[in-house]
Amino acid sequence: MPALLRQILSILGFIAFTHTAFAATQAISESDTRAVAIQYTELALAIYSDAEKSGQALQDSINAFLAAPDHASLIAAQNAWKTARKAYQQSEVFRFANPVVDDWEGKLNSWPLDEGLIDYVAGDYFYALGNIGGELNIIANTSLNIGSDVIDATKIDAELLRSLHELGGSAANVTTGYHAIEFLLWGQDLNGHELGAGGRPYTDYISGEGCTNQHCDRRADYLRVVTALLVEDLHFMSQQWSPQIADNYRAELLAMKDEVILARMFYGIGSLSLGELGGERIKVSLEANSTEDEHDCFSDNTHWSHYYNGLGIQNLYLGKYRRLDGSVLTGPSLSSLVAKANPAVDKQTRQALNKTMTALTVLTNAAEAKEKPMKFDMMIAEGNKRGEEILSNILSALVDQTRSIEQAASAIGIDPNASGL
């Protein structure tokens, strides 16, 4: 868990537990809590299955682009990447509550990354201080010198990319996952706090005559391999939540006591709510005015990334999820348990969740405005009062939301610190 996350949770007293719910233990049955625990696993299965399917669609789109690179097929691949982010970002609500997810997440969503490890960068590029991989440029070099070691990179394959991910223990050495793919599709965003995303040309992938920035065949190999790895990793996680597979994580989780599972649910949504989304992803960028700390920095998709994190939190509390095909999965929820114990607390929590989603909608509306759009990297510029207001309102809503989550847990006698994590 990041230090900032621990600090914020400690300050808020999120882990603090008060015994205010004796009546709840009389009103809520074991069948009620078991139904909510099962619905939790059903939500995870649906969301990760959607992430896998959209990852496969991204792979199809990228393969089509690489087969015949042109501007239209590049845009199609970029749009497929954005679609693939929708389900995945909603899945992050399971991250902090489940070690199988937290241990795996780094393969798919590590950021920010040192672009110079992967491909060409602008002349004024600065890599992370002391990073041994910041200038390796895998695409340009068939052998990589790392201290006294030489790595054969003649063939860009899964083994090579896996072995170089987080090279030297540096989180900036990202070779796999959504953001490596994002960089390969968009390139660096060199616009600073001005409007505009990365401008990688489709000609970076033309084989032979017409290739720009050299090494087009190796760049295509990298994009093809890293996308296949993403699909492989997503398949692994969807299988972890399938009721059809014995001895997977779902079976392990459901073998636990219901109060432990509920504690993990509350711990997960509280951790993502303030420590990660509010702290690591918004507050850090805003206070440092740092485009390097922007989540989807190459594509300028950060506003949607944050929106779907918020929606994932609301989904889990309400026990529902709208799938990418438009169908809605609903079932027993934390909300239904809290409503039995203390309707006022449940109402307050739902209102807090709605307030956050309203604030996040202001963010997406500003970023997607037809006239004078304001993307996240523009909002965090020093002196941008309107951007600061939008993001500060989100942070305020996340603080209130996290306090409400704490009260909801207390209302049904659940101590998030009893999650066993």
Task: Give a structural overview.
Residues 1-23 form the signal peptide. InterPro entries: Imelysin-like. Residues 44-404 form the Imelysin-like domain. The chain has 421 residues and is mainly alpha-helical. It has a single domain (3-113, 174-418), classed as A middle domain of Talin 1. It contains 15 helices and 4 strands. The protein has a two-stranded antiparallel sheet. The longest helix has 38 residues, at 30-67. The chain is globular. The N and C termini lie close together (11 Å).
SSE layout and pairing:
Layout: H1 3-12, H2 22-27, H3 30-67, H4 71-91, H5 99-109, E1 143-146, E2 149-152, H6 158-164, H7 178-186, H8 216-240, H9 249-254, H10 258-288, H11 302-318, E3 320-322, E4 328-330, H12 334-341, H13 343-367, H14 376-379, H15 385-411
Antiparallel strand pairs: 1-2, 3-4
List the total number of helices. Answer: 15
Output the strand order for the largest sheet: 1-2
Low-confidence stretches: 13-26
Q: How much of the residues is beta strand, in percent?
A: under 5%
Average pLDDT across residues?
A: 93
Tally the structural domains: 1
Order of secondary-structure elements: HHHHHEEHHHHHHEEHHHH
The second-level CATH architecture is Up-down Bundle
By CATH's scheme, which homologous superfamily applies? M75 peptidase, HXXE motif
Main sheet properties: 2 strands, antiparallel
CATH class: Mainly Alpha
What structural class results from the helix and strand content?
mainly alpha
How many β-strand stretches?
Answer: 4
Helix content: 55-70%
Q: What's the overall geometry?
A: globular
Rg from Cα: 22 Å
InterPro entries: Imelysin-like
Keywords: Signal
Organism: Zhongshania aquimaris
Signal peptide: 1-23
